[in-house]
Amino acid sequence: MDAYNAQTSRQNILRDSALGLVSTRSFPAIVGTADMMLKSAGVHLVGYEKIGSGHCTAIVRGAIADVRLAVEAGEQTAKQFDQFVSSLVIPRPFPNLEVVLPINSRLSAITEDGTYSRLSNQAVGLVETRGFPAMVGAADAMLKAADVQLAAYEKIGSGLCTAIIRGSVANVAVAVEAGMYEAERIGELNAVMVIPRPLDELEQTLPVANCWLEQRQPVRLPLNIKEPVAEAELLQLPDLSTLPVKIQEES
């Protein structure tokens, strides 16, 4: 009976939910678009799909009305960056669509991840270049310009790669500006983005280098164990029959 109720509840949730997709031609643009989608409506960010040639798609899930509102906000944001490609809202997607596409499995992996980053709750800066040398030079300039940490880098095809830094809002802003100038000096700058206060769901979808990830460890409480008592030595008693016995006669 419980299994039937759980299945019925899941079917009701799927019947009233929707998928929203917004595609851009830049990784910084898709991260900024996803940030705006999360902050404009009550949706969940499933993750990103990168299909090459610089095309990235943010996928969100939620109630139909929320998803429509989030996709509209994401589309407007992507157009402001001049990186918009397309958008889509799918009300009540069929289960077969979810099985084939990396939607539910990716959402489960995000929520069940046992690791966390020491860079969480910090501002995010992204500098995207066309060409790896320009990205490395921009990353070096950003690290030298302000107190920031290089969290990871992302490749999306067509020679586009993005350096991702973390730090305080002021330091990230200074570092990104320095990275922009260095990228333009070396090669081609494609896009930049600064996200002051990323939400937790956005945090979980951003790439982070393994050196910044920590495995959650169980709490180990000290145990008050008494020192073991030394085993007592056995003493051998003398044989009483061999001892002289003096018997006092009765008077």
From TrEMBL:
Subcellular location(s) per record: Carboxysome
Extent of the signal sequence: none
PANTHER family (UniProt xref): BACTERIAL MICROCOMPARTMENT SHELL PROTEIN PDUJ (PTHR33941:SF11), PROPANEDIOL UTILIZATION PROTEIN PDUA (PTHR33941)
Assigned keywords, A-Z: Bacterial microcompartment, Carbon dioxide fixation
Cellular-component GO terms for this entry: carboxysome
GO BP annotations, alphabetical order: carbon fixation
Transmembrane segments annotated in the record for this chain: none
Protein name in the entry: BMC domain-containing protein
The family this protein is said to belong to: Belongs to the bacterial microcompartments protein family. CsoS1 subfamily.
Domain BMC: 18-102, 123-207
UniProt key word Acetylation: no
Main location: other
Pfam families: BMC (PF00936)
Domain of life: Bacteria
Record bears the keyword Cytoplasm: no
Organism from which the protein derives: Fischerella muscicola CCMEE 5323
InterPro entries named among the record's database cross-references: Bact_microcomp_CS, BMC_dom, BMC_shell, CcmK-like_sf, CcmK/CsoS1_BMC
